[in-house]
Automatic annotation (TrEMBL):
It comes from Fusobacterium vincentii ATCC 49256. Keywords: Flavoprotein. Gene3D superfamilies: Electron Transport, Fmn-binding Protein, Chain A. It holds the Pfam family Flavin_Reduct. The keyword Flavoprotein applies. The keyword Flavoprotein applies. This is FLAVOREDOXIN. PANTHER family: FLAVOREDOXIN, FLAVOREDOXIN-RELATED-RELATED. Its cofactor is FMN. Belongs to the flavoredoxin family. Residues 14-86 form the Flavin reductase like domain. GO terms for molecular function: FMN binding; oxidoreductase activity, acting on the CH-NH group of donors, NAD or NADP as acceptor.
Length: 88
């Protein structure tokens, strides 16, 4: 196979996609789709997510410093897509 030179990018594919849920200090909750997720450590268990500052969830998580990572099933593909394009 011939070597192809691709433009530089930070995108690694395929990657798992997760649904991240969070709350702000007023108790308003939110859910959004995240692909930039990774393992930091197994003991203690730590994961990382990268969130663009323009996301509503960014503000919520900055306020509470808490979030939950949910692993969607194949049946939830449409919901995952929706949460990845629609903000409140
Ligand atoms: C497949 C997919 C992966 C995404 N991954 C990320 C991500 O890792 N980080 C991020 O900031 N936004 C990511 N997004 C975009 C957000 O999910 C999207 O902007 C969402 O509407 C933000 O919701 P919020 O403004 O209510 O927080 C992704 C979108 C899709 C469709």
């Amino acid at each position: 196979m011939k070597k192809r030179n691709l433009k530089g990018s930070v995108v690694l594919n395929p990657v798992p996609v997760v649904l991240v849920t969070c709350k702000n200090l007023e108790g308003k909750d939110n859910v959004f789709t995240v692909a930039w997720v990774g393992t930091v450590c197994s003991k203690p268990p730590m994961l990382s997510i990268s969130i663009r500052p323009e996301r509503l969830s960014y503000d919520y998580i900055k306020e509470t410093m808490e979030f939950t990572i949910n692993l969607p099933s194949k049946k939830q593909t449409k919901e995952v897509d929706f949460c990845g394009v629609r903000s409140r």
